Amino acid sequence: MLNDSELATLRNRFKRDAEFLLQSTTPGDENEKSQEEKDAKPLPRINRHSIFWIVASIGVTYYVDFLRNIMENDDIKSWWFNVGLILLGICLSLAMFCIVYLEWFKGIQHYDQEYPAIPPITTAAFIAASCSFNMALWPVWSFFTPLILFTQFMGVVMFISLLG
To answer: Which backbone phi and psi does 68 adopt, to 5 degrees?
Structure first.
């Protein structure tokens, strides 16, 4: 066993080593970017990835006659479709609360730190809505339903990213 003076020497040595390691890995390094620098330089809005998903979404909408099928097809399971609409409404309401009220009016850029429950609730509502829409629209497009809905989702997300 070590006596008290040896333990104190060992503890002091570890303290000095830890302080040295912490000083050498401070965020003041030239290679690391601060959060302000990352926020100041946004990525370009228009890129090949965005254009691809928008064009694919438009193509799928035209090819499967998406809007007419949603409005007029009797094979849609209306209960699941209505549940999906309600959950999507919750998801979009939370998103608008974050974007319009928190960012624009209150000026809170990192609202997930102020309101940590909003992102998981929004994510859960969206996942449940997508499952509901898949179940509701399965009789219409069968196994193509998840692909069609995913393409529509990506097209809408990329279009919204172009707006702001």
So the answer is: -65, -40
**How many other C-beta atoms can be found within 10 angstroms of the C-beta atom of residue 1?**
4
Query: What is the mean pLDDT of the segment spanning 40-68?
Result: 89
CA 64 to each of CA 13, 58, 144, 148, 151: distance values in angstroms, whole numbers, following the listed order: 70, 10, 10, 9, 12
The pTM of this model reads 0.70
Q: CA nearest 132: which of 149, 117, 144, 157?
A: 149
Q: Are 97 and 124 in contact (CB under 8 A)?
A: no
CA 52 to chain CA centroid, Å, is 19
Q: What angle do CA 129, 58, 46 make, to 5 degrees?
A: 95
Q: Fill in the amino acid letter for 156.
A: V
CA distance 3 to 25: 33
